[in-house]
Design goal:
It contains 16 helices and 15 strands. It is an alpha/beta fold and about 450 residues long.
Length: about 450
Amino acid sequence: MESGSVEPKKVAINLFEEGINSSLPGKAIRNHLRVGEDSLFSGEVGYNLAPVDRVLVIGGGKASLGMAKAVESAIGSIVDKGLIVTKRGGIERGLKKIKIREAAHPVPDMAGVKATEELLEIAGGAGKRDLVIVLISGGGSALLSCPVEGIELSELQSLTEDLLETGASIEEINAVRKRLSRIKGGRLARAIHPAKGLALIISDVVGDNLNYIASGPTVPEESKLGKALKVLKKYDLKENHSRIVDLLKEGDQKTDPVGEEEFSKFEIQNQIIASNETALLAMANKAEKTNINPMIISSRLEGDSRMVGKLSGQLARSVYEEGHPLSRPAILLSGGETTVTLSGNYGKGGPNQEFTLAGGREIIGIPNSLIGAIDSDGEDGSTEIAGGLVSGEEKVSRDKINSYLENHDSFGLLKKIDGAIITGQTGTNVNDLRMALIL
């Protein structure tokens, strides 16, 4: 590939599309689930359907609608009924046996509470001869929301908003939410018992830790009660949420998730069918086919968006000036979930947008280069854009980028320089996808 023979922006968009398409729920389900004569296969696990009275399908998350459609397409003939809870807005119907309920994200609402109660009723009604298929994806923590007795929805909403604003990690947020929920922390598995359970999971969590994907509704809880209290203390939220703190301190049984000993009695399988790594590998493979040298730095990068962006930009400059860690044409790929800590007055933006501006600031002047990042669900932060791209040849000064970053108004600058990526809701959620491209 000759330098300048391909437009970097076009290459970047094509590769982001490849990553998204590889992790769409329909493809993941089709690759994983199949039905044979009197048998259901999920990966390498088989189920004899002869003794099964009913197959029920329940779940929640941003990708749950696409997953449910794929399940009906693949094994609809054996599904009796079900219900999924997905994010409100832009939903096409089309399910025959599985009901759709819509709720708010990222802050839970009453629609989500009622839908979760309905879902738990289906799970609790499953008998020993039933098989319950659970569809779980990112966003499930907010969408599958049902506070424990003694906590009002308004208190849970306020706590969620405060945790999001502090820049707390998803692991920290979920450590708290699991203690305050009737479905998280293995409680859905408890409701399904004594029926058999099969959880199909699209991961949006760094490292694919099942305890944190949708707050682990079908896995035993590892963390102790003290972790939730430590998170509230760390972000100075104990005083503002004293009723929740008091409930946690009481050690009431209703705040205790399912432990390993109890979980060992359940018949439930948890299987990850798509993840951030799925998308990054697809992007790397496509880049290689177009003669671009790919390197996946990590699918687990976390931390402040600006710092991770700065590092990516510096690595891109190293590729250009020194040929390390790759020779050109090259693409450095990474995934995970970075955060933004808001302070003072702030504008509009999101973690991927701040990453993009911080990385773009480092590559100013490098020809045929760009920095870009998107949230795989199509919505970065509180904006209608998925993320952004900044070219090394963009006519924007470091000082101008600094001023927008200082005001947390990355959205404003990306719109001005035509660097916004708009996808709409993608139907999947495998965390953030980032790149530094040097042709």
